[in-house]
Design goal:
6-stranded mixed beta sheet; Lyase, Ornithine Decarboxylase, Chain A, domain 1; 7-stranded parallel beta sheet; about 350 residues; 2 domains
Length: about 350
């Protein structure tokens, strides 16, 4: 029996979440963001499951991720590269029919060089305008200049990215949406895309022709109360040892936790070397049979210690405790560690064995 931590990847749940997001839309298409190895869930496996379910639009961050997606999915779906092209990648983009997202004047000039002599991009390209994130994107003030310069080939999509979509009360959401609509006047008949996962929940006015959900596909984010998302993974680690300690004894490096009374503790085979954050020390939890077992002491490189006093009948070597999943919500666990669900799943290292379940 292996004593590695493991992540059961629930492909059917990810597909169901994609459909749930799609059902929240009145029109348009629902893409899938599969960058960062599908948020740690496995890019090839997730992409294939979603494509089989009908997804035709996939977003990645880097061209090497796009190559993997194309090799997995074949020639049919559209694959967009969010970080955009570099000058030496023309052959890669053309051979793999990738869609570059143009984020800057430098990238715009790069693509313009690729369109010399009327040789168009096989699937077109996307213009990304910054409307308030101040991260990537062409400036709004350049919109008409850019519009005049795209005569060789019009963009297939105009997009921007919401900065505060998780906060439905943020005034910036509406400001960005209106800015994108205004930009669209310079590109008649070119469709728009704005919404990430949080943007989908803001309502139909934010959906446009294509939404780009990411974390929602994997069961994270903050959906409305009437929307249920399923966990994309169940992260588990086996118990290596169980022991009784007495009141006054301490646990872990730095002796940061001291028992107030006799306590049954268990040591799990997972730590920050596997991607589980050290910031969860004395704050996070695991579960055994649905019983919450607090993390006590510091998370170390390979080991975590939990209080199993309330699950004594289940705690024995070889039994797996759950750290993310149906009994240990992704966003709750992340919040206790002072982070977000994105970081928990994308941070899991190859030491965590992935087990794919349809």
């Amino acid at each position: 029996m292996s004593l590695r931590p493991r992540a059961h990847i629930h492909l059917s749940n990810i597909v169901d979440n994609w459909r749930t997001v799609g059902n929240a839309q009145m029109a348009g298409s629902t893409a899938a963001v599969i960058k960062a190895d599908a948020y740690g869930h496995g890019l090839p496996q997730v992409a294939e499951a979603l494509h089989d379910a009908g997804c035709d639009h996939f977003f990645v961050a880097h061209s090497h991720e796009a190559e993997v997606a194309r090799a997995t999915l074949g020639s049919h779906p559209n694959i967009y590269v969010l970080n955009g092209p570099s000058p030496d990648e023309e052959a890669l983009y053309r051979e793999n029919a990738l869609i570059p997202v143009i984020n800057s004047s430098f990238q715009f000039r790069t693509m313009a060089d690729w369109l010399v002599d009327g040789v168009k991009m096989p699937r077109g390209y996307v213009l990304h305008f910054d409307t308030g994130m101040n991260r990537l994107g062409l400036p709004e003030k350049d919109v008409f200049e850019v519009a005049e310069a795209v005569e060789a080939q019009s963009p297939s999509l105009i997009m921007s990215h919401l900065a505060c979509s998780e906060d439905e009360d943020s005034l910036l959401n509406a400001q960005q949406n209106e800015a994108l609509k205004k930009l669209a006047s310079a590109f008649p008949h070119v469709p728009l895309s704005l919404s990430n996962s949080g943007g989908v929940w803001l309502g139909v006015d934010y959906h446009h022709i294509l939404t780009r959900p990411g974390i929602a596909l994997y069961g994270g984010g903050t959906p409305p109360k009437d929307v249920t998302l399923k966990p994309g993974m169940t992260l588990e680690a086996p118990i290596l040892q169980v022991r009784q300690i007495e009141a006054g004894e301490t646990v872990g490096y730095g002796a940061t936790w001291r028992a107030a009374e006799p306590t049954l503790i268990a040591t799990l085979a997972i730590g920050y070397g596997d991607g589980f954050p050290r910031s969860a020390s004395n704050k996070g939890f695991a579960t055994l049979g649905g019983n919450r077992c607090p993390i006590i002491g510091r998370v170390s490189m390979d080991l975590i210690t939990i209080d199993v006093t309330d699950a004594a009948e289940l705690a024995r070597p070889g039994v797996y405790a759950q750290l993310i999943g149906p009994d240990a919500g992704l966003e709750e666990q992340a919040a206790l560690a002072g982070t977000i669900g994105y970081e928990l799943t994308t941070g899991l290292t190859p030491r965590v064995k992935r087990i794919y379940e349809s």
